[in-house]
Specification:
Elements: H1 9-25, H2 30-39, H3 47-66, H4 76-94, H5 100-117, H6 123-129, H7 133-151, H8 159-179, H9 183-205
Length: about 210
């Protein structure tokens, strides 16, 4: 068998990487959530960055879903979204920003999400949003990087979470190349890999001794 045909070892590796990526994403945000809860502080975490990341995850997942791409190529997004919801909640809690307005905005988000998923909102609208996922996702990471550099304190930042983020973004470059070759997704993951690695390095540099 030719290992480079569409049923060869390259695709087996892609499937294995997809499974590893999905498994990693099962707990990607958990260390960050636990760190915030343990310290009862969200110092160094950018709320705006988290919200932008949430939007980027949402649009990317819906884009893959509505285009009927292989589920393994984006299965981590539903998992990441659930964890992101929890992380945003605990950050809002420890920044004392939970309010009726935040819950109303959550309801609006849910309505829009369901609208896209059921295609009540035309797919053409989603297509218009997809090109923005790269700059939005990149900006969210840049904001987190800036927050760390400004505070010079990464006490509330989980190195494990950002390490997993950098790893899973890099594996998706390979799997997408073999699955769809979608240039928008490849650009997104390429930039995300670089920025997640940058946040990881900055958080490691400013991490206080004997603290995670």
């Amino acid at each position: 068998m030719d290992i480079f045909d569409d049923r060869g070892i390259l695709y087996i590796i892609a499937d294995l990487l997809s499974l590893i990526t999905i498994a990693s994403c099962l707990f990607c945000k958990v260390p960050q959530i636990q760190t915030v809860q343990k310290l009862r502080s969200a110092t160094g975490l950018s709320l705006n960055g988290l919200l932008m990341e949430l939007c980027s995850y949402t649009v990317t997942m819906l884009y893959n879903f509505t285009n009927r791409y292989a589920f393994l190529s984006y299965m981590e997004y539903p998992i990441l979204l659930i964890q992101e919801y929890v992380l945003v909640y605990v950050v809002l809690k420890y920044k004392n920003m939970l309010s009726q307005t935040s819950f109303m905005l959550s309801a609006v988000y849910l309505a829009v999400f369901v609208g896209f998923a059921t295609e009540v909102i035309p797919g053409s609208v989603l297509m218009m949003l997809v090109p923005f996922t790269t700059p939005v996702g990149a900006t969210s990471k840049v904001m987190q990087l800036v927050a760390i550099l400004r505070s010079k304190d990464s006490q509330s930042i989980s190195l494990l979470t950002w390490g997993i983020s950098a790893f899973t973004n890099s594996t998706r470059i390979y799997t997408i190349l073999l699955d769809s070759g979608d240039k928008m997704l490849l650009t997104n993951f390429g930039i995300s890999t670089f920025l997640s690695s940058s946040v990881l390095l900055a958080a490691w540099y400013y991490k206080k001794p004997k603290q995670e």
